[in-house]
Write a structure and sequence with these properties.
This protein has 233 residues and is α/β, with parallel strands linked by helices. The protein has one domain: P-loop containing nucleotide triphosphate hydrolases (Rossmann fold, 3-Layer(aba) Sandwich), CATH 3.40.50.300. It is globular, with a radius of gyration of 17 Å. The structure holds cytidine-5'-monophosphate. Cytidine-5'-monophosphate (C5P) binds next to α2, α4 and α8.
Length: 233
């Protein structure tokens, strides 16, 4: 049987990364974090001094960016077993910065940026056997994915998780919950209202709400779905 493509979409802080990583490990599949690719383009714009309002210039940057993922053999952090490489350089820590996240949601609204990255994502997943997480994986990147999950959680719980994650990584020691929540709301609104590939659940996605559940519990629910669908097939 051809290995499956699993799409996991949803808003910021819903737990997609941890769930997608664990799921990929349990299925023996490759994990791909498409958000890191938009973050890498945002970082490249900052490094190059390009104004994010210059859509054509940012799209050209995206087309020229060499973005790759590499397993991190030194990582003792179960949450970050992969390095993100931008033009051969390890930018894993830089792309997690909050200002890069904000800029990622600005540059990701540029159609030329999306077409460049979607083409790369489709090439990465062409053979199947991938769990890819993002905002438009089930709607645009892999509309024929065998399983699509739309993972959500309440805005309060998402902000609490995001603050803990930033603290654990030592990224912003003094950010307040209100600040994280305000940035999250701003990013969600921008992602959900952009004209190209807005954040929306695919009509055939299974919607899962992760409030009060551990990532391992969400993964168990998804694996139960995989088993049920395979039995039906
Ligand atoms: O998932 P993450 O929070 O790392 O994504 C950063 C930003 O990249 C999102 O806020 C969103 O604007 C953009 N993104 C996207 N499409 C994807 C993945 C991420 O537009 N498939």
């Amino acid at each position: 049987m051809r290995p499956w493509t699993v799409a996991i979409d949803g808003p910021a802080g819903a737990g997609k990364s941890t769930v997608a990583r664990l799921l990929a490990r349990r299925m023996g599949y490759l994990y791909i974090d498409s958000g890191a690719m938009y973050r890498a383009v945002a970082l490249k714009a900052i490094q190059s001094g390009i104004d994010p309002a210059e859509a054509d210039a940012v799209a050209a940057l995206a087309r020229g960016a060499r973005i790759a993922f590499r397993p991190d053999p030194d990582s003792e952090d179960d949450e970050a077993p992969q390095c993100v490489l931008l033009d051969g350089e390890d930018v894993s820590a830089e792309v997690r910065r909050p200002e890069v996240a904000q800029l990622a949601s600005v540059v990701s609204a540029i159609p030329g940026v999306r077409s460049a990255l979607v083409a790369q994502q489709q090439a990465m997943g062409a053979q199947g056997g991938v769990v890819m997480e993002g905002r438009d994986i089930g709607t645009v990147v892999f509309p024929n994915a065998e399983l699509k999950v739309y993972l959500t959680a309440s805005p309060e719980e998402r902000a609490v998780r995001r603050l803990k994650e930033l603290e654990a990584r030592g990224i912003v020691g003094d950010a307040s919950l209100e600040q994280v929540r305000a940035e999250q709301d701003e990013r969600d609104a921008r992602d959900a209202t952009r004209p190209v590939s807005p954040l929306v659940a695919a009509s055939d996605a299974v919607q899962l709400e992760s409030d009060g559940l551990t990532p391992a519990e969400v993964v168990d629910d998804i694996l139960a779905l995989v088993d049920a669908r395979r039995r039906e097939a």
